[in-house]
Amino acid sequence: MSEETECEECEEGQPEWLATFADLMSLLMCFFVLLLSFSEMDLQKYKQVAGSMKLAFGVQRVVKADTIPRGTSVIKQEFSPGKPDPSVMKAMEQKSEDDSRPEIKIDLPAPDQITELQELLEATLAEEIEDDVLEVLVTEDGVMIRVREADAFPSGSAELQRGFIPVLEKLQTFLNDTEGSIVVAGHTDNLPIDTFAYPSNWVLSAARSASVVHYLAETSFTDPSRIEIRAYADTRPVAPNDTVENRARNRRIEINLSVPES
Predict the structure, then answer these.
(1) Which alpha helices (H) appear in 58-200, and where do they start and end?
(2) Closest to 118 in 3D by CA, of 262, 257, 260, 261
(3) What pairs with residue 184 in β-bridges?
(4) Per the count of CB atoms within 10 A, which of 8, 102, 153, 210 is most buried?
(5) Are 177 and 120 in contact (CB under 8 A)?
(6) Tens-digit pLDDT profile for the chain (262 aa)?
């Protein structure tokens, strides 16, 4: 038998399961080759492909907010502050080398009621004013009668002198015919006094004003409730206490008669 005949017999007598096994091995080799190709993936190319897929299908990420959400305007999302423009008006200022403002004193005329009251008092006490026993002065709300101590009281005493009684009687008659409050104030100089009856200038000034009020109230004065007593001692001098004459001026009684409001 020749060799070609033997080979053909061998091929014809080969079982079918051998062909199936060969096909299976080929498929397995292709499968592992495919797995190997996937194991060596290009990362940069994969990210590009994934990014394209995200843009195409839309991928939403959850991002934590660092700030509190704020309301936005529906009309306009942006804001730009305006620029300040200088005023077109010119400020006019007065310049002066001396910034001090001089005090302006305006002598207002006295009301008619005060002027009338002053004239009536000066006419009633004209003799005493001429003898310098007292003087009549205009105040903000009325008239003041200033009496010197030497004509009303002995030195260091609150007892009324007899020569001053007629003056008080004239004044009492005049006050009964008027309205308004009456304030009798006593004043002294700055020389201290320390006696049993008057331990200080406060007591002496209060006692002198009380003596005047006592005489007015006890001799048929119509309305004693109008009278007030005040004592100032040496706290309100009208002249410096540096000479005998000035200290004599500070020792005084002041009778203030106010004009009632109309």
Answers:
(1) 112-124, 126-130, 149-152, 165-176
(2) 257
(3) 229, 255
(4) 153
(5) no
(6) 444 544 444 455 555 656 687 788 888 888 887 777 666 566 676 677 666 666 666 555 555 656 665 655 555 555 555 565 655 555 555 555 555 544 544 444 457 888 888 888 889 888 888 888 889 999 888 999 999 888 888 888 899 988 899 888 888 888 888 888 999 999 999 999 999 999 999 999 999 999 999 998 887 788 888 899 999 999 999 999 999 999 999 999 999 999 877 6
* Number of continuous H segments (helices) and E segments (strands) in the chain: 9, 5
Q: Which residues of 74-91 are buried (b: 16+ CB within 10 A; e: fewer)?
A: eeeeeeeeeeeeeeeeee
- Are the CB atoms for 121 and 171 separated by under 8 Å? no
Q: Please, what is the end-to-end C-alpha distance for the chain in angstroms?
A: 170
To the question of pTM greater than 0.85 for the whole model, the response is: no
Give CA separation, 156 vs 188, 230, 231, 240, in Å.
10, 18, 15, 20
Name all domains of the chain by residue range, CATH numbers in brackets: 112-258 (3.30.1330.60)
Q: Which residue has the tokens 């001053």?
A: 164
Three-state DSSP class for residue 76:
coil
Quote the CA–CA distance of 152 and 147 in Å, as a whole number. Answer: 7
**DSSP-assigned states of every residue in 220-254:** T-S-GGGEEEEEEETSS-SS-TTSHHHHHHHSEEE
